[in-house]
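re: ur question from earlier - yeah i can do the single chain one, its not a big deal. heres the input i used so u can compare w yours
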Amino acid sequence: MNYDELKSLVQSSRTTRRFKKDAKVTNEDLKELLEVARLTSSAKNMQPIKYILVTKKEEVLQLAQTAAWAAHFKEWEQSDEERPSAFILMLNDRMIDGYPLFDAGASFTAISLAAKSKGLAVCPMASIDKELCSKLFVIPDNLDVMIGIAVGIGNETIQLVDAKAGDTNYYRLEDETHCVPKRTLDQIIMGEY
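and the output i got, formated as tokens:
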């Protein structure tokens, strides 16, 4: 893979909030994503991140219905027709002395890119209902749910745009294209020495 191919993959690996109804995502699909994630860099190589795979429809529906999907869209709620097909719960093992925020970021990036390469889309959700997770799944006391990752086949058009006047709030156009403002390179480089 060359630089342009990698850049294109990163640009097309966008957070998706609308999924195709009844698309099948299996535990094997999720395991393939985690096979890539487990190979990523880990601070001090401690590997504190663990996962729970959720593909049963009832549990997926409960997680999807209780999550906050798009904080900037006060007038929009995800419909039953737009639900994901699966979730990956990312957990931090507090018994392992690592840097879970670094590891979670590296892991999610790998999951997102692997998903895109398999024709899937993802949405990381810090708003996942952690109490519901504790009721639905067996989670040992030393593990904390960090985020939920919705997985399915994306069903929306997403466009990257330059952030204007520092405004990074995403928005939708009249045709429902989901626009994601990104800071420009000049806005993020603070010096060249």
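The domain at 3-156 is CATH 3.40.109.10 (NADH Oxidase). not sure if urs matches, ping me
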